[in-house]
């Protein structure tokens, strides 16, 4: 015990005790100052530091939770988008197949309609040709008949004199009279 009291007594005999000054002995003053500062910081700052760390921990945890929720939401949206993409691709394939078959149907319909139009035009052409042929034949007949009639009349007029003419008329009148 004497050693302990001696150490306190010896503290009172320090040359700088009782006066204020700078101690330039770094090795002697730094560990003491650091231990005092650390002790005060630990004693007074422990609650504040715990509160700051707890707040930071809560913010990090809430950020992680929010990130997880956003991740889950993004995964759900991605799955929905993939499902929509598959559906749209399927519909596009159906439209493509239906479109090709519709194009082929329209092509066949157009070919058939064109064939029908050509057939009608061919029939109309043939009818027009027959009509024109018949008209030409009728014109030729009329012309031949007219020329034959003119030739017969010319021959009759040259061959008939008034006496022959009179006898022909009388014979025709006689034939008409018998018919009555």
Order of helices and strands: HHH
Mean pLDDT: 82
Which structural category fits the helices and strands?
mainly alpha
How is the biggest beta sheet arranged? none
Instruction: Report how far apart the termini are.
Output: 192 Å
Rg: 68 Å
Proportion of residues in helical segments: over 70%
Number of helices: 3
Total beta strands: 0
Beta-strand fraction estimate: under 5%
- Globally, the shape reads rod-shaped
Question: Stretches where pLDDT falls below 50 for ≥5 residues?
Answer: 4-14
Keywords: ATP synthesis, CF(0), Chloroplast, Coiled coil, Hydrogen ion transport, Ion transport, Membrane, Plastid, Thylakoid, Transmembrane, Transmembrane helix, Transport
Family: Belongs to the ATPase B chain family.
Protein name: ATP synthase subunit b, chloroplastic
GO molecular function, one term: proton-transporting ATP synthase activity, rotational mechanism
Describe the protein's topology:
Layout: H1 2-12, H2 26-159, H3 162-179
Notable traits:
180 residues; mainly alpha; 3 helices; rod-shaped
Descriptive notes:
There is one protein chain. The chain is mainly α. It has a domain at 34-154. 91% of the residues lie in helices and 0% in strands. The chain has helices at residues 2-12, 26-159, 162-179. The chain is rod-shaped and about 195 Å long.
What's this model, at a glance?
The protein has 180 residues and is mainly alpha-helical.
């Amino acid at each position: 015990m004497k050693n302990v009291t001696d150490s306190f007594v010896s503290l009172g005999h320090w040359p700088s005790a009782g006066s204020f000054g700078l101690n330039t002995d770094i090795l002697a003053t730094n560990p003491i100052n650091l231990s005092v500062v650390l002790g005060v910081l630990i004693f007074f700052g422990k609650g504040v530091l715990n509160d700051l760390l707890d707040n930071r921990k809560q913010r990090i945890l809430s950020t992680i939770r929010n990130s997880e929720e956003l991740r889950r939401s993004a995964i759900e949206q991605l799955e929905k988008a993939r499902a929509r993409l598959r559906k749209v691709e399927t519909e596009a394939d159906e439209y493509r197949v239906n479109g090709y078959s519709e194009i082929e149907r329209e092509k066949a319909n157009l070919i058939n309609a064109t064939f029908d139009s050509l057939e009608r035009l061919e029939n109309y052409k043939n009818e027009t040709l027959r009509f024109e042929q018949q008209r030409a034949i009728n014109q030729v007949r009329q012309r031949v008949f007219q020329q034959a009639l003119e030739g017969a009349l010319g021959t009759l007029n040259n061959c008939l004199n008034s006496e022959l003419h009179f006898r022909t008329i009388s014979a025709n009148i006689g034939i008409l009279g018998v018919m009555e």
